[in-house]
Amino acid sequence: MTIDREAFIDNFIRAAEKNGLSSALNEEQIVTFHKLSEHLLTVNEQFNLTAIREWERVILLHYIDCLVASSFYPEGATVIDVGCGAGFPTLPLAIARPDLRITGLDSTAKRVSFVAGTAELLGLSNLTTLTGRAEDVAKDARYRERFDVATARAVAALPVLAELCLPFVRTEGDFVALKGKSGKEELASARTALPLLGGDGGRLFDTPLSSLDGESFSHTTVLVKKSKPTPALYPRAYGKILKNPL
Q1: Quick one: which of 97, 132, 145, 194 has the most CB atoms within 10 Å?
Q2: Cis peptide leading into 167, omega within 30 of 0?
Q3: Which residues, 6 or more positions from 174, have their beta carbon under 8 angstroms from its beta carbon?
Q4: How far is CA 30 from CA 92, 159, 178, 200, in A?
Q5: Helices (DSSP H) in 68-137: which residue ranges?
Q6: What is the spatial distance between Cα 99 and Cα 126, in angstroms, rounded to a whole number?
Q7: CA 36, CA 38: separation in Å to the nearest integer?
Q8: Cβ 167 vs Cβ 145: under 8 Å
């Protein structure tokens, strides 16, 4: 798919300004997002990577949606994106935050291959990928409690997600969950799970999105600080996590 570059840049700049990101990106980075969009939507014609097929909505609902929470990732942090799918927030973060060292983890080899190939296409040297199930990889000493931040977007309800993500986070690191309007309710439902997994009680931040035509989208970010190591029992097998959430 070919997207008019100047129209894309103009739309991206205006969308970023409308959502408080006016100083977060330079033109070179926006051009990289343009290249990502052409590649994503071209591949999407053959493989179902995203249900969003209009590039203007990709800017808002994939890129801006991921970047409104970019300030929650500390400078120079190592980040693992659990269930990265087609690369969100992995790819937008890698473009917008070259200081971060990001690992995109997913159980589906085809999606991981897309993310890895896209990172190579875009010249993103701060992004690596890993294929595997989170509950298995989190038991591996090479990855367990090795990251400054674990993050996830649209993967599972927070009690389930916390069990998959917090084992990757070092003590004093963070778990950043990108959520929609259900964030408040999900945080309340995770009050038992979070301390069992080594986290604090968590904090909720409203990070709403606004389109250029005035449409609003609910968006929340849940931030959990890891205060102590996760017990070796966790994460459990995925079937057990789903059947009996903490």
Answers
A1: 194
A2: no
A3: 72, 73, 74, 148, 149, 150, 223, 224, 225, 226
A4: 10, 35, 22, 36
A5: 90-96, 109-122, 134-137
A6: 8
A7: 6
A8: yes
Q: Map tokens 């408080």 to a residue.
A: 20
Helix ranges (DSSP H) in the chain: 5-18, 27-44, 55-58, 65-67, 90-96, 109-122, 134-137, 158-165, 183-189, 193-196, 238-243
Q: Does the predicted model carry a pTM greater than 0.85?
A: yes
Residue the block writes with tokens 């057990």: 240
35 near 61, Cβ under 8 Å? no
Tokens of 13: 């700049």
Quickly list DSSP for 32-50.
Answer: HHHHHHHHHHHHHTTS---
Could you read off the pLDDT tens digit of each residue along the chain, which spans 246 residues?
899 999 999 999 999 999 999 777 999 999 999 999 999 999 999 988 898 999 999 999 999 999 999 999 999 999 999 999 999 999 999 999 999 999 999 999 999 999 999 999 999 999 999 999 999 999 999 999 999 999 999 789 999 999 999 999 999 999 999 999 899 999 999 999 999 999 999 999 999 999 999 899 999 999 999 999 999 999 999 999 999 999
